[in-house]
Design brief:
heterotetramer; A: 2 domains; 6-stranded parallel beta sheet; 12 helices; globular; B: alpha/beta; Rossmann fold; 2 domains; 5-stranded mixed beta sheet; 37% helix; binds thiamine diphosphate; binds magnesium ion
Chain lengths: 371, 325, 325, 371
């Protein structure tokens, strides 16, 4: 692999001359966000195993990439996330309970229970773009949104996050190309976590890593250690500054490793060599950052323990609240197809509402079909 | 009022909204200095600047994908797909993204955008410059599908589409681009996106059509009246989605005899939906089988396209068949 | 004979042809060591080697595009699209290339290939893991579209599809993968690609269905018989293109009362074509409106999918409605 | 632009040490083929202007790329051409009259009059793959066909040709990626002729030329002077040899210039600066090769004159023969959709046959619908 930027060593030491550009409280916020992600993962896994939610996506091992990247953005910037970017949302203060509403697909879910779990969508406090399942389609969206910002003369940056597998998608090719030609203020963040479901990198591409793909588009690129929060942050900050200066997009490859399965439906032992998992365990991004904080005197083992208990409790509360929330109403099947419900859809809604009432189903609500 | 061809009306419609609304941007392959391969965007770059009308790389996926992004962030993109036959590389962006964005985000993100694209046969374009894909898009929940057949409607429907809060596929009958001319009001006006247009009144046979088939049907209807005294009620659907279903059913009931005409292949074509609506809602009014006059269930040929495309003779045959049944 | 689930029957079908014919290759995302996300290809790489069953990069366009190339040069590719929802990036390759290759080259180049893909709802997959796109493909001249509903048919139709000289889209009802079990003959056999299957005899109401809707309709038909003494003729279409039109019309004439059932949205859905064929060819036999029981004209929801999908109750309602008309 | 291989100077001199590896007769065949292309162009332009054919695609200025590339292939190799590759077909002995049948879409057209002009399809004497209009879709086809050859252990090479605009297409991204991962025996030939219809390269990509795009796929690449037949030939030969040795694909960018419009429907003066055309006139590939032949004593001005007259006459004869050939029969609308005509299509054919007979149209033929 070509030079990979690393700042933080596994033992928590930082490269000579490196000075964290974040205030202590921010450093602790980064750490706490990573713990929140772990807690979110842990609780979702339990909920899924217990059959209380249908599906989740493990984030174990990639927390530093998410949080490092998010920390480099302003609230006026937009994030075009992948389904594996819990940390970006949590870093920017999206309440865990909002995310849990989506995991349960309940009435409070901002997507109104229409999407699978982990398909979040928020506009506040930051634009955390509506996740869709098809891989790579959101890259051109980020470019288009960035183009709009640019035309209006704003200094908004649009960060789009995707996986190693995502680089093979159509959206990667068109998004990268359009962004480079238009000099759009976009940061392309490729999270190379080793696998696309079961497909390892050597079956995904013959290139040496993913950053080099930017060459095809005349776009600058950087490769960073994805388990090093500072390295990711620095690369994204630099790319964002370039974008704000009107100098166009950058591709960043964060080299990391998916320590869990692809999803709760996946058994990675079928295709991931155990040695590889062992090897990456040594590079755990959360441990690394914890050691850094300990060295810096910002965290004691006791404080760490307390923070872990606290984040777990926070997520647990969020899950309980979400689970206690009712399912969406029947009308949510029919609204938001268009801004206004056209006649043929309204009739289908009335039909279903009537049918459910005849069936005596509670979720039909009372009286008339409300749309 | 000006007397314009259909393509001039499209150009006029674009100019009208671009003048009124800074957020409208027009882009696609060759729409800039060249003015588009059919000249629909002629002069727009010169008159509004490169930031309002610009060329893109050769990627329909990129054109539609970036349009979705622009739309969600405050612009009103009007993307051109050079020929409807080349929309398929963007099918995923249209069907999975533009059409589903509002729904999947609970209304937090939306894609108010227009995809303009010339469609249909009659220019000796063979398999890949002649197709009519309306059925693919009308079947996709979340998309509006609009097809004008007159210069007046072309401008009015286009302006309505650009101002609409939802993604609209605006299919332009390229065979009519220069073949029809008509009065077009100056300045801004809109034509409602869910009302059909009654082209000709008549009590014997109802004919549904749209786009380039409208003049064909008009000719056939005139011949039916002349030769056989059969009076046809001719309906131009204009907005295929959302469809004016009440209007469609009303028209069917008026005659009890129905012909549906389109260029696209028959099997699972748009005409099937019209037949199905009738079979579902007013079968008891029907005095004859519902006849479809359509392209054949083959790819589009080149040399023999005049045999492939429905013409007035085929429509007349069908009129007579349902009338004489 | 073995008693297999539908997914086991698919695996068995693949093994059977791979053993018999070296030119058959299986590929797609995660079909290798992982055996596919539904395990349809489990063990194939281990048993036939990596050159016969292999993983591809994450590009459906690439999967189908290379399949076309392999097919024209002597291989018999069987490409998997992980979910039918993800077939749209390959739409251009399917619609513009695979479907039109024989025609446009005057038969000099052909694409005998199979695209296997799980489709349909019932697994809480929301918008993007639940869709039923059969209408898009049945409308595309040059493609065959096959949907089995039993393990026996899954294997027999799959083998016939792989041996067929034309491109076949083989849609597997994922809701039935493990939900149905049945007797499956060992070794090679085929089920003809243009004959429907009569699931249940009856003289009162005809019901057309396919895929995962077949068991739903069977339950509704049983209830209709039990509760009301209504005898339903249930038809599993199996091959949506080419359709056994004679068989379809015959079945409609037998009862004069028709219900069409599918999961996909109604508007311009496959059911519209069935209605249209009836309106065209045997409207005079109809004693009642043709009823469609389908998914709604919205994207596919998640939490409420059980309300979106047609169930036996909705089918039963329709049976009663056409019977009592 | 990065190093560009040139062998032949505008005055016909060759680089020191260069020795043409082709026998004299072959050199003359190359030259004659380029003249055939020019004649084909000229006559098609006239036919189009006279309304006798609907459309053609000018090849002026890019003849050396086509013929140089074709000369590096064997007859067992496959060509996946673009619509602008007349020279590749003619070089390999596809009779001009066969191509003219396509221009007229007549009954002898191998595509049975179904395609627009310039959408050729041949299987003999070389596989000259059926051209389709959608840009870039044939790249993955070449890769798939190459993969089949490779699995069977053949040493067949598959050359796929496309334009600068084609590099933005989906098929470029997936074709290049799959070929590199699979080490497929494919030669990717990008004919950078300056424009994609009216879109110049700086609106097409931000990369420095097109060859560099291979970096994204870990694929070797070369940039050659596309107006230099020898340079193109050499690059394609080398790439083909690599492919035959099992070492995988190569991307070659041939830098050339489209001297005519995009097609007979296009007016390039609207967007191509006149100076640019002037500049490229100096690099005319046919003049260059003629001077080389003259220097080598293989061609006199008189022989040149005669050859030009001869090729023009050959194409003229071909055009006349094609024009005199009848249109395809009605049954060609309905055949070849599937291997066998299914019932619903047969019925539609019978309907049309009957209708045409009732109309008294001659092309309906006699009696029954023949399929
Ligand atoms: C177009 C498309 N094809 C296939 C899939 C199925 N799928 C879901 S995730 C995934 C792998 C993605 O890998 P990568 O981009 O590396 O992201 P990661 O999951 O590793 O974060 C696949 C193939 C999909 N969602 N979309
Ligand atoms: C998918 C697709 N989009 C658009 C077109 C219309 N079109 C035909 S040729 C062309 C330009 C191609 O440029 P290039 O690849 O550079 O090839 P050249 O014509 O210069 O040889 C375009 C946009 C098409 N044929 N296919
Ligand atoms: Mg990955
Ligand atoms: Mg070009």
């Amino acid at each position: 692999m070509t030079d990979m930027l690393t700042v933080l060593a596994p033992d928590g030491a930082t490269k000579k001359g490196f000075e964290a550009d974040l205030p202590d409280a921010e450093l602790l916020h980064c750490y706490r966000t990573m713990l929140l992600v772990r807690s979110f993962d842990e609780i979702c896994l339990k909920l899924q195993r217990a059959g209380r939610i249908g599906f989740s996506i493990p984030n174990l091992g990639i927390e530093a990439t998410q949080v490092g990247a998010a920390s480099a953005l302003r609230e006026s910037d937009w994030i075009f996330p992948s389904y594996r970017d819990f940390g970006m949302a949590l870093y920017h203060g999206i309440p865990a309970v909002e995310m849990m509403h989506n995991m349960f697909g309940n009435a409070e879910d901002s997507a109104k229970g229409r999407q699978m779990p982990v398909h979040f969508s928020f506009v506040e406090p930051i634009h955390f773009y509506s996740i869709s399942s098809p891989i790579g389609t959101h890259l051109p969206h980020a470019v288009g949104a960035a183009h709009a910002s640019k035309l209006r003369g704003e200094d908004t940056v649009h960060l789009v996050s995707f996986g190693d597998g995502g680089t093979s998608s159509l959206g990667f090719h068109s998004g990268m190309n359009f962004a480079a030609v238009w000099k759009s203020p976009v940061v392309f963040l490729c999270q190379n976590n080793g696998y696309a479901i079961s497909c390892p990198s050597d079956h995904q591409t013959a290139s040496d890593g993913y950053a080099v793909k930017a060459e095809a588009y005349g776009m600058p690129h950087a490769t960073v250690d994805g388990n090093d929060l500072f390295a990711v942050r620095q690369a994204v900050l630099e790319a964002a500054e370039r974008a704000r200066r009107g100098e166009g997009p950058t591709l960043i490859e964060a080299v990391t490793f998916r320590m869990g399965g692809h999803s709760t439906s996946d058994d990675p032992t079928k295709y991931v060599p155990a040695e590889l998992v062992e090897e990456w365990k040594q590079k755990d991004p959360v441990d690394r950052f914890r050691r850094f904080l300990e060295r810096k005197g910002l965290l004691t083992p006791e404080q760490d323990e307390a923070m872990r208990a606290d984040t777990l409790a926070e997520i647990d509360r969020a899950a309980k609240a979400a689970e206690a929330t009712a399912a969406p109403g029947l009308e949510t099947i029919f609204s938001d197809v268009f801004a206004e419900v056209p006649n043929h859809i309204r009739k289908q809604g009335e039909f279903l509402f009537d049918l459910s009432q005849r069936r005596g189903e509670a979720d039909a609500g009372d009286g008339e079909f409300p749309l | 009022m000006a007397n314009l061809t259909l393509i001039q009306a499209v150009n006029d419609g674009l100019r009208t909204v671009m003048k009124a609304d800074d957020s409208v941007v027009v882009f696609g392959e060759d729409v800039g200095p060249k003015g588009g391969v059919f000249l629909a965007t002629e002069g727009l770059t010169a008159d509004f600047g490169e930031s309002r009308c610009f060329d893109t790389p050769l990627s329909e996926d990129g054109i539609i994908g970036t349009a979705v992004g622009m739309a969600m962030n405050g612009l009103r993109p009007v993307a051109e797909i050079q020929f409807q036959d080349f929309i398929f590389p963007a099918f995923d962006q249209i069907v999975s993204e533009a059409a589903k964005l509002r729904y999947r985000s609970g209304g937090q993100y939306t894609a108010p955008m227009v995809i303009r694209t010339p469609y249909g046969g009659g220019i000796r374009g063979g398999l890949y410059h002649s197709q009519s894909g309306e059925a693919y898009f009308a079947h996709t929940a979340g998309l509006k599908v609009v097809i004008p057949s007159t210069p007046h409607d072309a401008k009015g429907l286009l302006i309505a589409s650009i101002q609409d809060p939802d993604p609209v596929l605006f299919m332009e009958p390229k065979a009519l681009y220069r073949a029809v001319k008509g009065e077009v009001p100056e300045g801004e006006y809109t034509v409602d996106l869910s009302t059909l247009r009654t082209v000709r009144q008549g009590g014997d046979v109802t004919i549904y059509c749209y786009g380039a088939m409208v003049p064909v049907v008009e000719r056939a209807a005139a011949q039916a009246a002349e030769q056989r005294g059969i009076e046809c009620l001719v309906v131009d659907l204009r907005t295929l989605m959302p469809l004016d279903e009440e209007g469609v059913l009303e028209a069917a009931k008026q005659t009890g005899r129905v012909v549906v005409v389109h260029e696209a292949p028959r099997f699972c074509g748009y005409g099937a939906e019209i037949s199905a609506l009738i079979a579902e809602h007013c079968i008891e009014y029907m005095e004859a089988p519902v006849r479809r006059v359509t392209g054949f269930d083959t790819p589009f040929p080149n040399t023999l396209e005049h045999h492939y495309l429905p013409d007035d003779r085929r429509v007349l045959d069908a009129i007579e068949a349902v009338y004489d049944f």
